[in-house]
Amino acid sequence: MKNLSPSSGTILGRFIRGEGSIPPWMQWVFWLCLVPVIAKLMVAKGIIVALGIIVMVVALPIGVSALWKTEIGIYIMLGLAFFVSIPNRLFEGIPMGILLDVVIVTMLVGMLYRCTYNKDWSTFSSPVSISILLWAGMNVFELFNPMAASRQAWFFVIRPAVGYLMLFFLTYDMLTTPKKMYRLLFVILGLSLFSASWGIWQANFGYFSWEYNYVVRHDVMHLVFNYGRWRAIGSIGSPAQFGILMAFISMLCVALLTAFKGTFTKLFLLFTFLATLMGMVYSGTRSAYVIIPIFYFGWVVLSRNKKLYYSVIFAGALMVTVAVMPTNNYHIQRIQSTFKASEDASYQTRARNKAIIFPWILKHPIGGGLGSTGVWGQRFSPGTFLANFPPDSGLIRVAVELGWIGLLFFLNVYYNILVKGTFLFWKMKNKRYKAIVSGMICAIAPLLVVEWGQEVVGVFPMSVLFWLFAAIMFRSIDFDQKEQAEQAKFES
Q1: For a 10 Å CB count at each end of the chain, is N or C smaller?
Q2: 194-198 long-range contacts, Cβ below 8 Å, gap at least 24?
Q3: Considering the entire predicted model, what is its pTM?
């Protein structure tokens, strides 16, 4: 009988796709060839090679696994999103950005290979796929912007600008079952709880010694120490980003509490809600306070429950009371300052900057090029008008670097997430999926408002987490549609 065993090439191809393992004899050949090479390098280079081997033994299997097991890479990205600031604060000059890029590219190559091999491109057929790809394309197009003062800046900015966008497709592709989606969602909540607990500790007992050293070494005392109090930064490393993330997660937990059952699950969600809400308050981030009232208003609108409409009046009265009541409490005063922005010197400075830049934006439809403002502008095109302009706003930065045309592409992403998501939400049946989608929509909507005052989606870690949230939201919609289709098929 003819031997029908697969060839070595076929076995290797299956291994690359994650459908099998390399035969034992291939593994022996690989290691037998590698050992003398390693021995020679260790004799020549010493301990450096030995340390490099240890790193490779750990990193290489994980990296290769991420090639076909996207879930591994997504959880690596999630861990980095919450904890990458720790090695950055402990050690100087660690190229963590390159690590993020390598993980994303590895996952992307594996996903595109599988899509090509299986001739299945459904990953790119979500309701927001076109808007995200258009936004990514606009960023790539900026390489040819004749107004750009530096092409080199584009190469530095394009990696996170487009690479992090791809996390939406990678996550959407990875969430093939509700179980995987729930696991990812609750891991995010668990990490948020840990970070919130860290922030609460910082606010009550102070920073760790290595955190104090980082603050002094980088002269950022004015950012984290206000009115005799240390602002909580958790594991995130930035009080602004920490506060916004905590507000987002706390409101998401409110939505999830309405649908998820089980004593342990409800206690976990309740505890996470309280901890992240406290973390938001201790961060002292005024922009984060905006998220709560907008979330509640959006949640009431989505519910279509007339009884809840009256609660908006009560909530509005409560908000006005908190905004005007006399108090000596630092945290309440911080909240009140959110509604007295015109009296704030920093707000007045930002308002003047916006008034100066608006005429320039109108005359430059595709902007001044990626990396033309802020830190990148000062590094690659110092002395230019845009390099000396502080954007201080996510929307303004987009409008300055990519023009008002680029701003339209950016707003189109938000439009597709919020408006399309809302119409699809009203057609959903599964209570759990609806809770996830309503929580995401109502928590993402305030981010657009916050973008007017500061950068959100363009700043780490929200630049990573935002796309994971969007993928979870639209995969929930997809699961609900499939369940309804199956139910209709069964009933017919």
Answers
A1: N
A2: 194/82, 194/235, 195/82, 195/234, 195/235, 195/236, 195/242, 195/245, 195/246, 195/279, 196/234, 196/246, 196/249, 196/272, 196/275, 196/276, 196/278, 196/279, 197/275, 197/279, 198/232, 198/234, 198/235
A3: 0.83
